[in-house]
């Protein structure tokens, strides 16, 4: 299956290039189609990859095919898939959650449901409290969730009676950005969830009790706010950039902005209320972000700690995955055409 997939990717890429040469030469008897095909392959300067094992092998096979066809070495650059950068940020946020929660536990009691004897059977769980509450609320209140323990329809009816709509999405959809989106939805609905579970839900269960206990812990909520902060000011602007018509050649400029923004948030002089979106042309209104600070009801020092730890982990991912666009990288101040990029 592995090699079959690699072979299919290579065949698809070569076939697409041949089809382009055929279209270009259609009705032009004096143009050599094979020559045009070779020119297309030679001008293929970049391939985009997610660095998974299949794509790594494809990159290697494509480069070898190109060199054999042309009879000479021809430079090919392999750019990391920018959507997968957000997936790396999600993983980094989970690493930061572990660091922050360990620090919280050394200076206080266990977090959320872990302090309750009702959940002693789950004491060995390796999942962080912040990831847990995000996952559980999405499962029981979001679409395509847990039909057995969830209460999606009751939740929607409750919100409708309040003149509101649910902002939860499926935790299984958009795996790149859903941790941050779901944290924002959780913070937005915090008071609604507490009222719903305490007064309106027809029957409780361990998942619902877990949610209530976690929502009562301001330390967990401080990290949830930090995730929402990054959603509005960093990951969502980045996601909008990826879905925009902005020329790919300008991407290094945006990487620079991400670098400087993370540096400012890691800095000892970081001021929470002076923070602005990483990209001014793809950002949210900061007023919306800080209105959630009141809803979170957390200590500001806990929020700042959480933001700094996430920013530190984001910095590591940025330096590793987008190194081609940073100072000294292949595309640092280099002019290249969007048409050079083959996105698979």
The coarse silhouette is: elongated
Uncertain residue segments: 338-344
Give the biggest sheet: 3 strands, parallel
Distance between the termini: 18 Å
CA gyration radius, whole angstroms: 24 Å
> Biggest sheet, strands in spatial order?
2-1-3
Note the total helix count. 13
Fraction of residues in helices? 55-70%
| SS content category | mainly alpha
Count of individual beta strands = 3
Total separate domains:
2
SSE order: HHEHEHHHHHHHHHHE
* Beta strand %: under 5%
Mean pLDDT: 84
InterPro entries: Oligoribonuclease
Signal peptide: 1-16
Keywords: Hydrolase, Nuclease, Signal
GO molecular function: 3'-5'-RNA exonuclease activity
Write out key terms for the chains shown.
single chain, 344 residues, mainly alpha, 2 domains, 3-stranded parallel beta sheet, 13 helices, 3% strand
């Amino acid at each position: 299956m592995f090699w079959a997939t690699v072979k299919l990717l290579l065949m698809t890429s070569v076939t697409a290039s041949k089809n382009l040469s055929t279209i270009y030469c259609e009705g032009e008897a004096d143009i050599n189609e094979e020559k045009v095909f070779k020119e297309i392959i030679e001008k293929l300067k970049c391939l985009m990859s997610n660095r998974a094992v299949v794509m790594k092998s494809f990159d290697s096979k494509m480069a070898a095919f190109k060199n054999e066809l042309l009879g000479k070495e021809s430079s090919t650059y392999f750019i990391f898939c920018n959507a997968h950068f957000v997936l790396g940020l999600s993983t980094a946020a989970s690493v930061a959650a572990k660091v922050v929660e360990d620090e919280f536990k050394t200076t206080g009691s266990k977090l959320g449901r872990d302090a309750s004897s009702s959940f002693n059977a789950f004491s060995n769980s390796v999942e962080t409290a912040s990831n847990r509450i995000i996952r559980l609320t999405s499962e029981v209140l979001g679409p395509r969730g847990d039909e057995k323990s969830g209460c999606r329809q009751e939740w929607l009816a409750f919100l409708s009676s309040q003149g509101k709509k649910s902002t939860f999405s499926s935790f299984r959809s958009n795996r790149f950005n859903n941790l941050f989106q779901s944290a924002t939805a959780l913070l937005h609905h915090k008071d609604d969830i507490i009222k719903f579970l305490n007064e309106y839900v027809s029957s409780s269960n361990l998942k619902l009790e877990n949610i209530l206990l976690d929502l009562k812990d301001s330390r967990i909520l401080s990290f949830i706010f930090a995730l929402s902060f990054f959603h509005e000011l960093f990951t969502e602007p980045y996601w909008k950039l990826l879905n925009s018509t902005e020329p790919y050649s300008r991407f290094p400029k945006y990487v620079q902005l991400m670098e400087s923004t993370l540096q400012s948030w890691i800095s000892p002089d970081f001021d929470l209320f002076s923070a602005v979106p990483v990209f001014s042309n793809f950002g949210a209104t900061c007023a919306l972000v800080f209105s959630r600070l009141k809803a979170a009801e957390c200590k500001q020092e806990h929020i700042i700690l959480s933001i700094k730890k996430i920013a530190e982990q984001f910095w590591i991912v940025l330096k590793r995955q987008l190194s081609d666009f940073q100072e000294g990288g292949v595309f640092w101040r280099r002019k290249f055409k969007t048409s050079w990029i083959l996105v698979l």
